[in-house]
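tl;dr need the bound structure. longer version: we got a ligand (adenosine-5'-diphosphate) that a collaborator sent over and nobodys looked at where it sits. i said id run it. heres the input, straight from their email, havent touched it
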Amino acid sequence: MAARGSRPLALTLALLKPDAVAHPLVLEAVHQIILNNRFLIVRAKQMRCEPGQSRRFYREHAGRFFYQRLVEFMASGPMWAYILAHEDAVPLWRSLMGPTKVFRARNNVPDSIRGAYGLTDTRNTTHGSDSPASASREIAFFFPEFSEQLWYQREEPRLRRGPVYYDAEQRVHCVLGDEETELP
Ligand code: ADP
Ligand code: MG
């Protein structure tokens, strides 16, 4: 993959929710959308939310009628969590996901992720941070070992300069030539 240019990379948190992971073809289709849109996958892991973790993650929605349903769904099966990098990471991932509500997504943006794969307003396939500040908070929530500051110091400039390749086994992008120099 060639060099990216002069604009700094931004980060966002993407979750492939349990409804997506339950269906292997949907999981692969969403993963492919990430790759096709020139995101760099900085970190990726399969994980499962504890109920308490899922309640904390969505605490801004505590008290809404769908809150209990939402936190139970998020803890109901495995998910994939990704740290994605792109010059326009937050708005690009949000626009690829489409509207929150599946009915609106299907009608207005049928080729969005939720328009194509969402099942219900709760089981809507993906999560994406809604601002850079949310992205930082949510990345720290799911990847406590990841330092955004160190990433900007050490990895971002090299990812931007390239060349970068996609490691299909780890499902992340790496800088060519970095294989030997293990990052802390
Ligand atoms: P988004 O995920 O698009 O940022 P919100 O932050 O408003 O949307 O809501 C968080 C999640 O809560 C949604 O992705 C969806 O899973 C669930 N949700 C939101 N609104 C509803 C609703 N009206 N009915 C059922 N579930 C909902
Ligand atoms: Mg939201």
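gonna send this back to them w/ a short note. Residues 10-89+126-175 form a domain with the Alpha-Beta Plaits fold (CATH 3.30.70.141).
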